[in-house]
Amino acid sequence: MDYSNQKGYIFFDGALVKWSEAHLHVLSHGLHYGSSVFEGERAYNGKVFKEIEHTKRLIHSAETLDFKIPYSENEIINIRKKVLEANHIKDGYIRPVAWRGSEMMGISAQQNKIHFAVAAWQWPSYFSPEAKLKGIKLNISKWKRPSPETAPVSTKSAGLYMICTLSKHEAERKGYDDSLMLDYRNYIAEATGANIFFTKKDKLYTPIADCFLDGITRRTVISIAKQEGLSIHETRIKIEDLHNYDECFVTGTAAEVTPVNAIEDFKFKPGEICEFLMEKYANFILKE
Ligand code: PMP
Fold this sequence. Notes:
Layout: E1 9-12, E2 15-18, H1 29-33, E3 36-38, E4 41-44, E5 47-48, H2 51-64, H3 73-86, E6 92-100, E7 114-122, H4 129-132, E8 136-145, H5 162-173, E9 178-183, E10 188-191, E11 195-200, E12 203-207, H6 216-227, E13 231-235, E14 247-252, E15 256-263, E16 266-267, H7 272-287
Parallel strand pairs: 8-9, 8-15, 12-13
Antiparallel strand pairs: 1-2, 1-7, 3-6, 4-5, 4-6, 6-7, 9-10, 11-12, 11-14, 14-15, 15-16
């Protein structure tokens, strides 16, 4: 699959254009200086999951990077709808992205136009608990999530993914599925595109999201767990504590709820709680 050359339509700066014609210039500030923000969203059975939350986060990411997306929250929601309709997508992935253009080519980008595009592609949700319950393997990255004084950590912006790609490449070279990143204090933070949870008996534990993305799926799983009467603790977790936990799973728009069976030499047994939350999450996304 070449993402630059598919059939269908992409919303690009005000209109739906043919997929293969959604180009930008090589002297775009977003490309050179990482001034780009995006979202990763899913539609299930024709409905975008947590649409308002994703739209608000996109606007927040842009504002934090000191630019304004030239569409309102409602306009973005309508654009997304048009893109899904134009491409006949009911179950799919949606990628809105906003970036600075080429009017100035230097660090300062006061005059640069803000561009906005939304692409979407089919992505059926295959809910197969048996396959997922085998779990994935994580290594521990040498790259650390930066402190809130070092980077705009609450945003979903391109620059923050530089170390995620490096981490994931190293993990894949070593035969792992993904990489667990520690933060600048050496506490456990998150995987390269998903948040992480641990269980001990019937209690859930997850790192405090003070220097990484507080995922929309993370918050959804926390609220499902609370509704189901599981106690949930947002806390600081160190590598040496990992042997205390029974189960481990990651959460994200793409990952949904995915069990983890090992973090390097620490083994976890995807079990009752993983299975329970996977099913509850699968039911929740269809109800929402
Ligand atoms: N952390 C990172 C770095 C991510 O890219 C994602 C995916 N957006 C998440 C966490 C999970 O966020 P969400 O549940 O909002 O998809």
